Amino acid sequence: MPIKDMLKTPGQWLNGSGEESEIILSSRIRIARNLETRRFTHNAPNEELAAVLEQSRSAANETAALKDSRYLDMGGVSTLERQFLAERHLVSREFLFNSSNRGLVVNMSEDLCLMINEEDHLRIQAYSSGLELAKAFETASRLDAELAPQLKFAYSERFGYLTACPTNLGTGLRASVLIHLPGLVHGKEIHKLLDSLRQLHHSIRGLYGEGTDVMGNFFQLSNSATLGTPENVIIANLREMVVKVIGFERRAREMLFHKARSLLEDKVWRAYGLLRHSRSVSSKEALSLISAVRLGVGVGLIRDLSTRTLNELLVYIQPAHLQMLEGEPMEPGERDVARADLIRKTIADSANHQED
Amino acid sequence: MPIKDMLKTPGQWLNGSGEESEIILSSRIRIARNLETRRFTHNAPNEELAAVLEQSRSAANETAALKDSRYLDMGGVSTLERQFLAERHLVSREFLFNSSNRGLVVNMSEDLCLMINEEDHLRIQAYSSGLELAKAFETASRLDAELAPQLKFAYSERFGYLTACPTNLGTGLRASVLIHLPGLVHGKEIHKLLDSLRQLHHSIRGLYGEGTDVMGNFFQLSNSATLGTPENVIIANLREMVVKVIGFERRAREMLFHKARSLLEDKVWRAYGLLRHSRSVSSKEALSLISAVRLGVGVGLIRDLSTRTLNELLVYIQPAHLQMLEGEPMEPGERDVARADLIRKTIADSANHQED
Fold this sequence. Notes:
Chain A is α+β, with helices and mostly antiparallel strands.
C-alpha cells in the first residue's frame, strides 16, 4: 500500500477527543529496547543492522498489537516521504538522515508504531488524543509484552533495560504530552513555568521535539528521568505535573478572558480572518494563527470550528504533507500558497458544516 | 434640524459614481470671496464679523442654489459636532478652533456649502463623486453668481478677487481631487510622481488637507496657482494632470496584477479578512486596510463589495462620526472597538446584499 494512502486520514491521536483535549492535544509513550546479542545501532555494521531489522520485523509480524499494520523499509522510501512520516510524529529526525536498514511498522489508525534501528534497536511509540497517558502506556506495553518473548532484550539486574544513550537507561520510557499554552505565553508566565519544570526533572520542548523551536505556543512536556523510578510512577508524576500546568493555563485564560476580553477577542478574530482569507502563509505564521484560533475555540469565542479540525490542520500544513497532497515537489513560496489554500478550504468547509 | 440627522446619509459625493471613480473618489471646487467694505476675518473685530455673518447668511437665503439647505451657527455647535463637519470635509480646521461668528450653510445632499468667516469671508465649496471637476465648478459658480449681486466682493482690476492669503489671490479658486494611489505607492513610484507634480505647480497632500499625514494611499491633488490663469484653464490643467496620474496608477496596478499577482491577492484578502473579523482597529490601520480592499475591488479580485460602501466607510470610521453614532463621547480604545464593529457589520451586510 503506497505511503500516500496515509494522507487520506490523519492519525487517530489528532481527533480532539480524550481528557483535557482543549489544552492537551495528545499523549505519547515511547519505550526503548535493544536486542541482547547485538551491538547498539550506532556501533553495528550493516549486516548486523540487517539482522536486527529482519528479526524485529518478523517478531512484530507475529503480534496481535500490530496485526493490522503496514511495514515501511526506510531504504525504499523517498526523502519527502520520510519527512512526511516525521511530520506525523511516526519517525524521528534520525530516520531522515539514515535510511539504510531502518524500518517502521505502523498500525492503520496510527496510534502504535515500532521504529527499528533508530538510536535504539526498537522504539515502540503509542499515541492517544488528549491527556490519556495510561491508555497510551497500555497500548505500548501490550506490544512490548508481545515482543519480549520473541526477542531477548538487553537487560541488567542493576540498571534495568540497557539503551544506547544513558538518559534512557532503566525503564527506557519517555512519556510526553503535546500541550497548548497560549494563555501562559500571553500572560508572560511561561518562562517561570519552564524553569520550575526543569527543576522538577521534567523537560519542555518545541512541537517537533529536541532542538526545535517553540512555535504557536505548542510544547512537548515529558519526564527526564528514566532510571530508578517504576513506569507507573513516571507516568503518575508526569500526569500530576501536567494537571498542574493545565490549572495554570486555565487560570491564565480566565485572566485574559475577564481582564483583557476585547484584546483577546481581537487577537483571536484577526487570526481567524487571516486564516480564512489569506492567499499565502508561512508554516510559522500558520502555527501562530492556528494557536490563536485554537485558544478562541477553547474559550468559546469561536463556535464554527472544532479542536479536531485545528489539530488536523497542524499536521497537514507541514511542507511534506503539502507536497504529498499536491503530488509534486514545491518551492517554499508555492507551499505558502498551497498552505493558505488548504487552510481556507478546511475552515470554510468546517464553517459550512457547522451551519448545516 | 439637529446635526445628528446628517449621520443618516453620507454626502452625495461619496457615492462612487462619476468618471474614473475607481481611482478618483471625488472632485472639489472651492471659491474664496471677501466683502469689499469689511476687513479680512483675521483683522476684523467681533461686531464686524457678526455683520459679515448676518449679511452673507441673508444673501445665501435668497439663492436658489442653497434653497434646500441647513444653517449651522458654529457658536452653537459643540466641538464634537464641528469635528464631525470637518470629517465630512464641509468645514476646515479653522472652524475647529474658532467658532464665534462663524457659520455654515450646507445643502441637503451635501454637494454644496458656504463657510462664512473662515480665512476669507466666504468660502463656497462644491463636491462631486468621481472625476467631475466641471460639474463641481458649475455648482459652485451658480452660487457665486447668485451671491455676487447681493454682496459686493472685494475685487481689483489688476489682481482679481482679493483674498486674505496671497496664495488665493486672483480667481480665489482651488480645484482638487481625492485620489487613491495604492498601485503607485506599492510600486514605490509615488515619490517621483510627487516631485514632478510640485514642479508642475500642483500640490499633493494627505486625506484631510494641508499638514495632514498621507494615510491609506489617499491623496488630495490640487492646483497651486490661482493668479493670472482663468478658471477654466486652471480646471483643464488640473484635469489633464489627473488623467496622467490615473494612467500611471493604472499601469502600476496592471504591473502588480501581472507580475506580483499572488502577493497582491494575499495583501488584498488579508486586509479583507482583518476588516471582516477584527474586534478593534485604529483609524490609521483601518484606512490602510480599506485602501487594500478598495484596490482589490478596483482590480476585480473582490466582488462582494462596492467602491461606494468603501468610500462611505472612510467617512463613518472617523472619531467624531463614531461618537455621534454612539450618541456619547468615547475614549480612543472604545472608538477602536466601535470602529471594528461598524466595519464588520457594513462589510457583512454588503456581502449578504450582493449574494441576494
